[in-house]
């Protein structure tokens, strides 16, 4: 088991390496002068030179890569083209709100989606199934910011239950945190719930057709035990997988949601960086999110064996 | 392809065979309505220049933020442009991006997936690269591309395509890997068929049905991502009206003019909903496992 | 042959089914799946339900358990009376109560019938937790006890094992333990030995009988195998298309069947008496296999690992017009040998000479031109034809690969349709429009279209119903006769081997343990393993087709290992 985790950790290195190369090439292989693009139309030659210098664009490609990669390994992702502050500092300052909202989203999503999917599969082709599937298709179809604005309109503007926008950290008081975090979390959760509920239902439908479910029923086992003890554990692996791969959606959602709700997290940081063409920040965000994505999926992989004894390392 | 007996008809029958309904299955009202609504939206978008009352780009300082009226069906935006004309025209680019991204992703993914599924040597490397591309969130990649290349249609399509390709590759590869274990493929080997022939004639048709399904999902998600990119200010040029652009401009006016988000949002959601529903229907009909369970 | 002859007329009736009708849910006017069947089982009786696939055997058992898939099938009339309790209108809670306590069931696939993520001990214990108030330790003691009763080895270890860590036979023992732990009055066994090797099958049949005697359980045993029926049944009901066509005590049914269908069914059952061998050919052997070896795995970058030796030191040859059978249980390496000869896998040692060319080490490219000399027919008729291709296209694929013009290939395909007894218009149809037996005929036609010197039949009749099996065996025989093809016939079923093979080669764990003329090997087996295989063949003393005992039952001399 431990050896397996180590092996998997090692296996993520090439993946992250390819991501790094990709991110590196993205800027350098852009047609035209990247410095000119980043500086905007009104840039003076001095400004251009400064950007080239900062990004090391004057060196040969290989030298650039080695320098860039070496710095990255040391945890140096450069400084912002706009504020001149260290990118790693900028990101870590903004990480807190994003992590809190993301965790809350995951908890809400799993708690809602898994029972929804299980019940939809159990009551296959009834109105409950239809309702769950409708919600799930709808969740895929409405852009996340539209959901955000609708929730704001209803709960903040019409009902006035929660503030419209903003963020408070849990240290400012749990009530303040929840009242501001609940709408963004629900907004983010919509698509995640849709995804997980759908997969839970599909996986459960498959498992409920298996022989051992018939065996359990032939033993006179109660339906709730059939569903949760016999079926759900067998259905778990695809559900875990989708939670892992769906994480990419969550990351994208964070960027949008933080803009809608004006939350000072890394999503806002990214949007501000786009508007200012602050490439070092964008680059750091891609590396960070790819790293998180790989890590989450590593955890998911390792957790398979917890649910399915046939998977042994 | 080698000329086979009745090859013309058999190509047709491959398709009808793929699409034929399992015995006793009926299409419910849902998919039919979805298809009709989608057709209507597509038609309305394509024909928009023929019937919209105003130039979607024409600004008019005299008629800013007008409420809906006979003159302006859905009112006007902060620049005095007719919202109805903009929303109806906006679908054209959104749909183009959706279809474009779907076709490019499926085509590229199919080729790479077939290679990975068939050539053991290439498999490991290809799949590592695919894993890496999947780790990069589409939105962030798009943001980076647009930041570097400037807002353009091709930037957006490429940005949406790159993270989708690995999913298509995985799908094609898994279909190929399981199909090549089938006895009929082994029989073809025994009959002396060459590897390229087996790959194209026996294995590739198996990928058709899942690719159609996957293609619809990619199309839906591409339209959605375009909207999000525009909303974040990283989409196609703001000169071009797209559903995403119209909503992005509506952000600051959300409280006084919700229609700027509501109408394009509604059309966009409806459009994606229909595509997703059709994708689900196609999957239920095409997935043999589903057929076995429900047929 | 010893049949059961117990008189059960005084025993208490456990199950009474009257005019039971089961049909498609919500479609009472459609053709019913079960059409007014009657069935009685008394305490201690073993009642066998036999029939071909689709005859309604399993539906009968599921209806009795109240386990019909609700959205597909429903009871539309009649009654199922379990010791005075009417099952057809019981509530879900009543039914749950009944299961495991009064009626229990074991299924065909012990692998899929056990929950893969729960320990097998827990799965047995769950029955006790659901139906009794036993304490945790009492329940465990009772579980251990029943596991010992079904003769599981090392019970403490097996208790906390997961299903995938046990063998097929052990898993089926777990299923039996689970079914019998609450001592039900009726045990329904749905093809419980079909997925097992013959020697394991024998053990499981003995176990069911032992448990039945110990607990006085009535057994409803569903099977397609007449041999098994002959071994275990008190009473037999023959099913066809949802109806019970004949029901009688075992001896009566086998010696004096009343209905045509029963006679037809029995006539198709192969027996262990070997066929007369075909004429010995003067010509040189078509296939020479010399010290063939196949080792899977092994190698490794850092350490040389052992690898699995799936076949070793296999040597034989086949002359034109003769049939050699390779017989063995699962994992014996018989299919590995076939696949090596076909070069679907690359053997790791030895030589394979087909039509005077050594092919075991030819490169893929050089091999291509030799493919036409050897063809193969696979086991699963549902997967061996490309579902998207017309029959014509499948039949022409090979000849066109070897340069035959399309029109000529088509003509030949039409001739072949006639040969395998299918209508000509079958050429334009797709595989799903044919039955399993018909598809297997098409697969044979596809192989024969290449005019091969050697035909490999890898379990080619194992997936077929017995009457279809007999027809396909006849067809193979006919094809061989007509074209003088040499045939390599891979099978797990000694009875089938006896029907078609001139020579037999018995494999165990990758090695050949015995080979020789079929008559000699089957009548006077020299190796213990061959003997145990013959001993385990169900119904081996009975000549079903002639409704009498075998005149010269394959004698097994000496002690059985």
UniProtKB/TrEMBL annotation, chain A:
Residues in ABC transmembrane type-1 domain copies: 95-300
Pfam family for this entry, one: BPD_transp_1_N
One GO CC annotation: plasma membrane
Chain segments annotated as transmembrane: 99-122, 134-157, 177-197, 237-261, 281-307
InterPro entries per UniProt: BPD_transp_1_N, MetI-like, MetI-like_sf
Topological type in the membrane: Multi-pass membrane protein
Compartments reported by the entry: Cell membrane
One GO-annotated biological process of the protein: transmembrane transport
This protein's UniProt keywords: Cell membrane, Membrane, Transmembrane, Transmembrane helix, Transport
Family according to the record: Belongs to the binding-protein-dependent transport system permease family.
Protein name in UniProt: Peptide/nickel transport system permease protein
Source organism of the structure: Allosediminivita pacifica
From TrEMBL, chain B:
Family that this chain belongs to: Belongs to the binding-protein-dependent transport system permease family.
SUPFAM superfamilies (UniProt xref): MetI-like (SSF161098)
Keyword Transmembrane helix: yes
Pfam families given in the database record: BPD_transp_1
Membrane topology: Multi-pass membrane protein
Cellular compartment(s): Cell membrane
Residue span, ABC transmembrane type-1 domain: 91-279
Primary location: membrane
GO BP annotations, alphabetical order: transmembrane transport
A cellular component term, taken from the record's GO annotations: plasma membrane
This protein's name: Peptide/nickel transport system permease protein
Transmembrane segments: 35-54, 95-119, 211-234, 260-279
UniProt keyword list: Cell membrane, Membrane, Transmembrane, Transmembrane helix, Transport
Automatic annotation (TrEMBL), chain C:
GO CC terms of this entry: plasma membrane
Pfam families xref list: ABC_tran (PF00005), oligo_HPY (PF08352)
Major subcellular location class: membrane
PROSITE patterns named in the record: ABC_TRANSPORTER_1 (PS00211), ABC_TRANSPORTER_2 (PS50893)
Subcellular localization(s) per the UniProt record: Cell inner membrane
Protein name per UniProt: Peptide/nickel transport system ATP-binding protein
Residues in the signal sequence: none
Similarity annotation: Belongs to the ABC transporter superfamily.
Molecular function GO terms recorded: ATP binding; ATP hydrolysis activity
Gene3D superfamilies, per the entry: P-loop containing nucleotide triphosphate hydrolases
Record membrane topology: Peripheral membrane protein
Domain ABC transporter: 17-266, 287-534
Keyword Magnesium: no
Keywords associated with the record: ATP-binding, Cell membrane, Membrane, Nucleotide-binding, Transport
One GO term of the biological process aspect: transmembrane transport
Cited NCBIfam families: PRK10419.1 (NF007739), PRK11308.1 (NF008453)
């Amino acid at each position: 088991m431990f050896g397996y985790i180590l092996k998997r950790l090692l296996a993520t290195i090439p993946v992250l390496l390819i991501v790094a190369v990709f991110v590196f090439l993205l800027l350098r292989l852009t047609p035209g002068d990247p410095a000119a693009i980043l500086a905007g139309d009104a840039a003076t030659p001095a400004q251009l030179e400064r950007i080239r210098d900062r990004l090391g664009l004057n060196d040969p490609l290989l030298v650039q890569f080695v320098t860039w990669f070496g710095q990255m390994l040391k945890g140096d992702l450069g400084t912002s083209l706009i504020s001149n502050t260290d990118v790693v500092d900028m990101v870590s300052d903004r990480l807190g709100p994003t992590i809190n909202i993301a965790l809350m989203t995951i908890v809400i999503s799993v708690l809602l989606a898994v029972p929804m999917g299980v019940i939809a599969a159990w009551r296959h082709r009834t109105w409950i199934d239809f309702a769950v599937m409708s919600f799930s298709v709808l969740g895929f179809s409405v852009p996340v910011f539209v959901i955000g604005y609708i929730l704001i309109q209803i709960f903040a503007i019409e009902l006035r239950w929660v503030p419209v926008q903003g963020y408070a950290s849990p240290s400012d008081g749990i009530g303040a945190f929840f009242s501001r975090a609940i709408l963004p979390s629900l907004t983010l959760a919509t698509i995640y719930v849709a995804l997980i509920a759908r997969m839970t239902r599909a996986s459960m439908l498959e498992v409920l057709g298996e022989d051992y479910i018939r065996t359990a029923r032939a033993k006179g086992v109660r339906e709730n035990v059939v569903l949760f003890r016999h079926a759900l554990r067998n259905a778990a692996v695809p559900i875990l997988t989708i939670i892992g791969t769906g994480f990419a959606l969550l990351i994208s959602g964070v960027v949008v949601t933080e803009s809608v709700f004006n939350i000072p997290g890394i999503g806002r940081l990214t949007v501000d960086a786009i508007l200012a063409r602050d490439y070092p920040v964008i680059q750091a965000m891609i590396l960070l999110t790819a790293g998180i994505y790989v890590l989450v999926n590593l955890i998911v992989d390792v957790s398979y064996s917890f649910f399915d004894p046939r998977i042994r390392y | 392809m080698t000329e086979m007996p009745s090859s013309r008809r058999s190509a047709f029958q491959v398709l009808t065979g793929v699409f034929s309904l399992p015995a006793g299955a009926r299409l419910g009202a849902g998919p039919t309505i979805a298809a009709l609504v989608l057709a209507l939206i597509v038609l309305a978008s394509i024909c928009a220049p023929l019937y919209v009352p105003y130039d979607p780009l024409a600004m008019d300082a005299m008629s800013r933020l007008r409420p809906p009226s006979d003159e302006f069906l859905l009112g006007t935006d902060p620049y005095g442009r007719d919202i109805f004309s903009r929303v109806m025209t906006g679908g054209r680019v959104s749909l183009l991006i959706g279809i474009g991204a779907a076709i490019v992703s499926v085509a590229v993914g199919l080729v790479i997936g077939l290679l990975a599924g068939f050539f053991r040597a290439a498999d490991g490397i290809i799949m590592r690269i695919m894993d890496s591309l999947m780790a990069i969130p589409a939105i962030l990649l798009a943001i980076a591309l647009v930041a570097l290349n400037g807002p353009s249609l091709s930037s957006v399509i490429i940005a949406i395509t790159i993270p989708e390709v690995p999913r298509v590759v995985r799908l094609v590869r898994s279909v190929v890997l399981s199909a090549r274990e089938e006895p009929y493929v082994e029989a073809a080997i025994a009959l002396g068929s060459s590897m390229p022939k087996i790959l194209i004639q026996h294995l590739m048709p198996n990928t058709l049905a899942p690719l159609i399904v996957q293609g619809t999902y990619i199309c839906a998600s591409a339209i959605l991502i375009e909207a999000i990119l525009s909303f974040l200010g990283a989409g196609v040029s703001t000169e071009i009206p797209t559903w995403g652009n119209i909503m992005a401009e509506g952000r600051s006016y959300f409280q006084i003019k919700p229609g700027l988000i509501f109408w394009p949002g509604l059309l966009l959601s409806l459009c994606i909903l229909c595509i997703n529903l059709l994708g689900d229907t196609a999957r239920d009909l095409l997935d043999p496992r589903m057929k076995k369970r429900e047929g | 042959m010893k049949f059961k002859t117990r008189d059960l007329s005084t025993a208490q009736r456990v199950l009474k089914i009257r005019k039971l009708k089961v049909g498609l849910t919500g479609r009472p006017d459609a053709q019913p799946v079960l059409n007014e069947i009657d069935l009685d089982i008394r305490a201690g009786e073993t009642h066998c339900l036999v029939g071909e696939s689709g005859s309604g055997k399993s539906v009968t058992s599921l209806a009795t358990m109240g386990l019909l898939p609700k959205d597909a099938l429903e009871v539309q009339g009649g009654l199922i009376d379990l010791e005075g309790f009417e099952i057809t209108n019981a509530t879900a809670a009543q039914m749950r109560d009944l299961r495991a306590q009064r009626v229990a069931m074991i299924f065909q696939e012990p692998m899929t019938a056990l929950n893969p993520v729960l320990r097998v001990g827990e799965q047995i214990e769950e029955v006790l937790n659901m139906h009794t108030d036993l304490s945790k330790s009492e329940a465990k003691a009772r579980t251990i006890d029943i596991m010992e009763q079904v003769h599981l080895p090392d019970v403490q270890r097996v208790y906390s094992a997961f299903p995938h860590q046990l063998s097929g036979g052990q898993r089926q023992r777990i299923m039996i333990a689970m079914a019998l732990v609450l001592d039900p009055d009726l045990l329904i066994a749905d093809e419980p030995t079909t997925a097992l090797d013959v020697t394991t099958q024998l053990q499981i049949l003995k176990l069911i009988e032992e448990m039945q005697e110990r607990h006085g359980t009535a057994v409803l045993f569903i099977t397609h195998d007449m041999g098994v029926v002959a071994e275990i049944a008190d009473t037999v009901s023959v099913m066809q298309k949802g109806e019970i066509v004949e029901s009688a005590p075992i001896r009566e049914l086998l010696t004096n069947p009343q209905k045509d269908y029963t006679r037809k069914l029995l006539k198709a059952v192969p027996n262990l008496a070997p066929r007369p061998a075909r004429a010995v050919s003067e010509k040189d052997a078509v296939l020479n296999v010399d010290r063939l070896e196949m080792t899977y795995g092994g190698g490794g970058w850092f350490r040389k690992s052992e690898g699995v030796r799936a076949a070793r030191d296999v040597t034989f040859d086949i002359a034109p017009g003769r049939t050699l059978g390779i017989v063995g249980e699962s994992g014996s390496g018989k299919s590995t040998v076939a696949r090596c000869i076909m070069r679907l896998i690359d053997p790791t040692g030895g030589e394979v000479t087909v039509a005077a060319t050594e092919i075991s080490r030819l490169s893929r490219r050089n091999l291509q031109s030799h493919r036409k000399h050897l063809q193969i027919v696979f086991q699963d008729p549902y997967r061996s034809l490309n579902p998207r291709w017309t029959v014509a296209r499948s039949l022409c694929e090979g000849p066109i690969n070897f340069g035959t013009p399309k029109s000529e290939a088509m003509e030949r395909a039409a001739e072949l349709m006639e040969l395998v007894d299918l209508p000509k218009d079958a050429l334009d149809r797709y595989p799903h429009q044919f039955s399993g037996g018909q598809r297997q005929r098409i697969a044979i036609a596809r192989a024969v279209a290449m005019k091969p010197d050697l035909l490999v039949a890898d379990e080619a009749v194992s997936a077929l119903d017995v009457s279809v099996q007999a027809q396909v065996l006849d067809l193979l025989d006919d094809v061989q006769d007509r074209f003088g093809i040499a045939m390599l016939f891979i099978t797990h079923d000694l009875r089938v081997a006896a029907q078609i093979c001139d020579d037999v080669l018995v494999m165990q764990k990758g090695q050949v343990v015995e080979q020789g003329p079929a008559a000699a090997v089957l009548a006077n087996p020299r190796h213990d393993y061959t003997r145990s295989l013959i001993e385990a063949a169900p119904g081996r003393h009975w000549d079903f087709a002639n409704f009498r005992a075998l005149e010269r039952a394959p004698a097994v001399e000496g002690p059985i290992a």
